[in-house]
Amino acid sequence: MKRLVIFLTILAGLVLAGCPQQAPPNRGVYLLLDTSGTYTKELDKAQRIISFILARLNPGDSFAVARIDTGSFSEKDIIARTSFEDRPSVANQQKRRFRDKVGKFIDNVEPAKHTDISGGVLQATEWLNEVDPGQKVVLVFSDMKEDLPENYVRDVPFELSGVEVVALNVTKLRSDIVDPRKYLGRLEQWQKRVEQAGGQWRVINDLDHMTGLFSG
Amino acid sequence: MPLPNVFMIVPSAFLSVLIWLVLLSALLYAARVPIHRVILSASRGLHRALRLSAFSVQRAEDRIAERNRQVLLAQGREAAERQIEREFDRVDETVHRELAGYPDLHRRMSEEITAIEEEHKNSQDVPPTPPGWTEAVDAVARIPAKADPMVGNILEDIRKSLVKAHEKAITEYRRATGERHKLLERMRPHWRNLQQQVADVDRNINSLLERSQAIDRRMQEYEETVRGTERAVRMLSSSTLSQFFISLVVMLIAIGGATINFHLIARPMAEMVGGTSDIAGFRTADIAALVIIFVEVSMGLFLMESLRITRLFPVIGALSDRQRNRMVWVTFAILFALASVEAGLAYMREVLMQDQLATSALLRGDGSSEAVSSSFRWITTTAQMGLGFILPFALVFVAIPLETFVQSLRTVLGILAVGALRVLAFFLRLLSSGSRYIGNLLVDLYDLLIFAPLWIEARLSERGRSTQGAAEGAGSGTARATRSGTAGESQDSTEGEPA
């Protein structure tokens, strides 16, 4: 009997170690969409990215999509946001509703006059801190060129510890083509800013290879 | 002052080295005897300690081997008792079933025999014989009737009457014969019944004979096991090893089945207990699925135990038959309920999969694939539900290899332990011998380092002996013997002692 108990305990331990999966940390993803000027035409790509992200998010994860507008440090720029329910079937329904909501926005979007990336990042950080997921990701779908209206102050220091900032589809502007140093300098400047704030920085320009979008 | 200069006795490095070597040789030569003693004492001590350890390990190995033997014999005795008990049960069953009905069988056979006798008796009644005066009629018929027509007519009438009577008698004869045949025909089923009953008795008797032969064989094995003969131990050992490997293979197959079962229900479990919570770092849905499988396996163990197929839990085995029967039904009901739950979960899994596929297709902007696959979906769903329902019942039978595995594991572990101890004892003996030779080798190496003073000593002692021999000349044999004895002793004390 004693031997049987020991054997069953070992067996249970082996099966426990072999079959069940480690619970993955829940993820919080905040996608910033640049809707200024030429980027309005790129929004179909953004929709593909949103669908890709939705397909990969699990119950318990959180996702928000916001536009980068004149003053993006504002709740009104959030297009859709949700935390997926525990139950997979409900999470699927939420994903469909989310996609519909974003689709409606993209169909009726008006080009923004200015580009407030810093405000958007600040807003994203706040939201992610509120949701408090295990993994925090801020995706920026933009050319990363900031164009602020007058009197807007954005040289505030970020607090991005534990946050990964990923720049997606960073289009080269005409001036970049003339002088590539501007493009490289812009990316470098953002990288420095993010890393100084304690965050991690990545650039993904090839949208066909987004499989490594979420680490872990 | 640099370190090398410390060792410079004279300005010349070569001379310094030479002086150092001479000094060291002298020092080592002076310390030769105690150092030899130390080396040899240490090697002897190590040798004895290792030998003692090897002896202890050997004794432990013997004890474990003896214990293994006892366990093996006990297991073999128990198994033989179970088999003999089972054979006796079968014999008892046959005897009770067949011999309890023997009076009835005897009565039936007597009835059949009586019926046959009666029918036979009836069939012996002599049928009416045809008239015996046919020849007389023929004689009358042969009388020439041409002379007197009257006589001819009379004779013709007589002939006709006789023919008529003859035909009647023949008909009666045929009827009586047919009757006898019918009686004989009615005897046939009685014969067959009788034959069948005799064949049944024969079969039962043969079965009993076979059982008795099997019991004889088992008893022979049992006696050998009780006596603890080497043959019995050998047979039991090889049988246990083969049982261990067979049960291990079956257990691995069962674990494979349990894994499939797990994957079948883990996903839909997220719909019941949530997909995000975790227990000790593992997903709660996975843990819940595992718990269901373990409960099924446990119920299977209890069911097999209640049916007395396995004997893992003495408490269940000791229950009364009524309680055991109740337990059989309770465990079966729980298993059935769990199997139904699993079938439902398997169906839910398919629904969830389809939902997820539809969502993915929608997100990809592709809705065409759904229509193609929907016509075959019922096959997958049915197969999954069937698997979900059958696997819990299949897992019930894990109890049988599990029992064999648990019982044979003790023997296998014992054999492994004996093997490990044997290897350890061998290495300890090897080290023990090695330490002794290493001591001698170190002594020789030490002497090699101080070969120069030793060589001088040998030369001096040789010269001393030759000088002494020349001075004393032909001294008394007793004095020489005494000296040589002393020299021998002193030599023993320096060289012989450490050895």
Strand order of the largest sheet of chain B: 1-2
Question: Structural class, from secondary structure content of chain A?
Answer: alpha/beta
Low-confidence stretches of chain A: none
Roughly how many Å is the radius of gyration of chain B?
53 Å
Envelope shape of chain B: elongated
Number of DSSP strands of chain B?
2
Contiguous uncertain segments of 5+ residues of chain B: 477-499
| β-strand number of chain A | 6
Radius of gyration of chain A (Å) = 21 Å
Mean pLDDT of chain B: 82
Report the major sheet of chain B: 2 strands, antiparallel
How far is the N terminus from the C terminus of chain B?
A: 46 Å
- Assembly state of the chains shown: heterodimer
Strand order of the largest sheet of chain A: 3-2-1-4-5-6
Query: Helix content range of the residues of chain A, please?
Result: 40-55%
**Which band does the percent of strand residues of chain B land in?**
under 5%
Helix content of chain B: over 70%
In N-to-C order, the SSE pattern of chain B is: HHHHHHHEEHHHHHHHH
* Helix segment tally of chain A: 6
From N to C, what is the helix and strand string of chain A? HEHEEHHEEHHE
Protein name (chain A): VWA domain-containing protein
Organism (chain A): Thiohalorhabdus methylotrophus
Signal peptide (chain A): 1-17
Keywords (chain A): Signal
